[in-house]
């Protein structure tokens, strides 16, 4: 590009500028037109007599063209100098631009390399964070306190809430109890409906450390529980069939229009006393009511009430109560209570 510009400058130095040629040509045409007009008038005789004007009209345009060309050449030279200077500046700017472009390319390559390194470092950072998280979990696992037998049993039993379990006690045959709940103190509550071991629904509590678990199916149950020791006395829930029904069935039987007492007994342990009483219906029918410490326990015929009496009496004996005073009353009709 610089060579092409130099060729243009050299061409401008070789002759008249375009403007000088236009001026000279125009002036010569004007002279020729003037001579032509004069030759068509009476002035041509005067023109022929004065020959000096021949030289003026012939040589004058050439002289004037030379003068104009001289000044135009001066302008052309100055213009060429300016062109050279501008060409040099343009060449310098092009060189600077090429250098800047090259530098920009190098900077872009360097930036791309920085981005690549940054991405690689980010991948390493993610990997390190994952490894740190795993290491932290492993440290927590290694330093975690081992679960006790009670905690392990409670965790296992919570998976079976609401299911039936085959419960063993003291080598006896298994009995199906509902796993009712396991509280925050790791106390298990077992529930059994009426008719299996009692005429009433019962619930018993067991510390999870006082039992053993076998998750092998037994008697239609998915889990077996061996109870070493129950916690306290069982709670009675009337005729509730399931643990969820206990509050609706625990109120006991409604009271009858009772007559006289037909059987009574007291049971003592230290300074504590429990009482049981049976009343016959006032109309003398085969309808009796069993009460314990003034609370209605059950209402039924002579056989049903006798069963409930004997169950309560066995519970008292199992809790180390001894039988104190007892006695009978007159029963209307030929109904017998099976109590001993």
Q: Note the main sheet.
A: 7 strands, mixed
Structural class: alpha+beta
Number of helices: 7
Strand proportion, as a percent range, falls in 15-25%
Residues in helices, as a percent range: 40-55%
Write down the overall geometry: rod-shaped
Q: What's the mean pLDDT score?
A: 81
Count of individual beta strands: 12
Write out the strand line-up for the largest beta sheet, numbering strands in chain order.
Answer: 5-6-1-2-3-4-7
N- to C-terminal distance = 133 Å
Order of helices and strands: HHHHHEEEEEEEHEEEEHE
Number of domains: 3
Low-confidence region ranges: 4-16
Radius of gyration: 64 Å
Explained architecture:
With 340 residues, this protein is of the alpha+beta class. It folds into three domains: 2-124; 151-249; 258-328, no CATH class. It has helices spanning 2-12, 18-39, 43-49, 52-143, 149-157, 246-249, 302-318; strands at 164-169, 175-182, 187-192, 202-207, 211-214, 224-227, 231-236, 258-269, 272-281, 288-292, 295-300, 322-328. The strands form two sheets. A seven-stranded mixed sheet has the order 5-6-1-2-3-4-7, covered by helices on one side. Helix 1 packs antiparallel against helix 4 (52-143) and helix 2 (18-39) packs antiparallel against helix 4. The chain starts with a helix and ends in a 12-residue tail after the last strand.
Features:
7 helices; alpha+beta; 340 residues; rod-shaped; 24% strand; 12 strands; seven-stranded mixed beta sheet; five-stranded antiparallel beta sheet
